[in-house]
Amino acid sequence: MKPFIHDDFLLTNEMAKILYHDYAKNLPIFDFHCHLEPKEIWENKQYNNISEIWLAGDHYKWRALRSNGIGEKYITGEASDKEKFLAWAKTVPYTIGNPLYQWTHLELARYFGYYELLNEENAEKVWDMTTEKLADSSFRARQLITSSNVEMIGTTDDPTDSLTYHENLANDDTWKPRVLPTFRPDKGIEIRKETFLPWLDKLSVCTKQEINSLEDLLVALEARVEYFHSKGARLSDHGISEMVFESASRQEVEAIFLKAIKKQDVTIQDERKYKTYILVFLGQLYADKGWTMQLHIGAMRNNNTRMFHLIGADSGFDTIEDYPVAQPLANFLDELEKTKQLPKTILYCLNPKDNFVLAALAGSYHEEGIPSKVQFGSGWWYNDQKDGMIRQMKDLANIGLLSKFVGMLTDSRSFLSYTRHEYFRRILCNLLGDWVEKGEAPNDAALLGQMVKNISYENAKTFFGDEREAEVGK
Fold it and tell me: Going along 82-228, which residue ranges are E strands?
């Protein structure tokens, strides 16, 4: 009997097997969006046990544990790392049908050479085996990256970050993969949140200037974009719960900003005007620098107030937002396009109802020499599973050019998540093979193989540019 993870895992037709094994399997990984800590890469962190590298910070697993009735003590609480792992092993058999089941066994197979199904009975054996292997130098952070054939990593970084670890890595001649920062200014855009004023203080410190006016803020933001660019950044990222667009004059936005720093009431309408103005300003900066702008749209966060106060944000209590997106997003992109200042852009939606909206809207903006300048991004968060990925690729193919899609990313905090690229590539190859079986695509392995190579690696490398051609620090 075959193990669950085998050579033809998820490949259900002959063309899929050819496409994966001959074209996709050995391609490098261009992981342009993740949440890895550059400090851990620079310090080449070694993990004491599998809970540290597998469970800490993984809100996907935390949600599954809670759904299985596991107490918070064994998730984010005071239980030992081993007790937390045993709770996860007990939960795994119940995750069949959830991508966590497949991801779990892919990671055990690829990194630890373990092909049995994880469960409560063999959990002690797996704990001992993985603990022993993690003690070996080949399981340090950098070695995990290189053994996964990763060529580029795009981290997610606040504008106030010093980027010290990125700079250290860029200057390390012994280190080949590129670890590049991504500009994520959400805290400077969420003007009504309690994090706004403390963030302004941090921005003031790192730019060595007081921020007492809108002009001060814009100057500071531009300075940080310039700084990020000098350290290799070529991407920005924005987490947007509700896409808004409400035009306002410079004077109006100045008045709104002054209300915020004086701790006066900022209305929802004020917030929309401010967000619109700042997003347009930043979009223009990105275009000027040749960056790619990423918009992650539709997360409704911190829905469990009691748990938010207990353990904080990003703990597995976020869900899918349901605001209208078409008109404000079109207005925003068009505002930048009017002056030819629309940067390369990737649109991600958390609500799959918006797939066709984003895929169709992306096709409204073009630039000669930049194929699919506005991209409909890969299945994100709740959609980065087989059905979500297939839905996203089919929707893109029906409306745009799947062949020009920039492909998958890990969007993860774990060094073991690179198997998600394998997962995606297998699903892509099987989708194309299925089209061949149905007579919907030609039975041409060379043609489809090049398409697989492009989507899995080449398109992303071309779209974002090869940063080695531009020396970091220029």
Answer: 150-154, 178-180, 182-183
Helix (H, G, I), strand (E, B) or coil at 301: coil
DSSP letter for each residue of 71-121: -GGGTTSSS-HHHHHHHHHHHGGGGTTSHHHHHHHHHHHHHH---SPP-TT
Question: How many domains does one find in the chain?
Answer: 2
Q: How far apart are CA 365 and CA 372, in angstroms?
A: 8
Taking residues 269-292, report their average pLDDT: 98
Supply the CATH number for residue 96's domain: 1.10.2020.10
Phi then psi for residue 349, to 5 deg, are: -120, 140
Q: How confident is the prediction for the chain on average, in pLDDT?
A: 96
Q: Check residue 314 and give its pLDDT.
A: 85
Q: Are residue 74 and residue 206 in the same domain, yes or no?
A: no
**Same domain, yes or no: 168 and 135:** no
The C-alpha angle 212, 214, 218, rounded to 5 degrees, equals: 110
- Shared domain check, 131 and 153: no
Q: Which domain holds residue 353?
A: 147-469
Which residues are CB-neighbours of 256 under 8 A, at least 6 positions away? 191, 248, 266, 270, 271, 273, 274
Both 160 and 223 in one domain: the answer is yes
pLDDT tens digits for range 293-347: 999 999 999 999 999 999 988 889 999 999 999 999 999 999 999 999 999 999 9
pLDDT tens-digit readout, 164-223 = 999 999 999 999 999 999 999 999 999 999 999 999 999 999 999 999 999 999 999 999
Which has the closest alpha carbon to 186: 110, 239, 138, 235?
Answer: 239
Spatial contact of 162 and 74, defined as CB atoms under 8 Å apart? no
Domain boundary among 139, 163, 185: 139
**Residue 408 tokens, joined:** 């998958």
d(CA 55, CA 333): 38
Residues 151 and 53 in one domain: no
CA 364 distance to own-chain centroid:
24
Domain boundary pick from 139, 164, 195: 139
Per residue in 381-434, pLDDT (tens digit) is 999 999 999 999 999 999 999 999 999 999 999 999 999 999 999 999 999 999
In 346-406, alpha helices (H): 355-362, 386-399
Mean pLDDT of 448-461: 98
Instruction: List, for residues 254-272, the tens digit of each pLDDT value.
Output: 999 999 999 999 999 999 9
Q: Are 453 and 23 in contact (CB under 8 A)?
A: yes
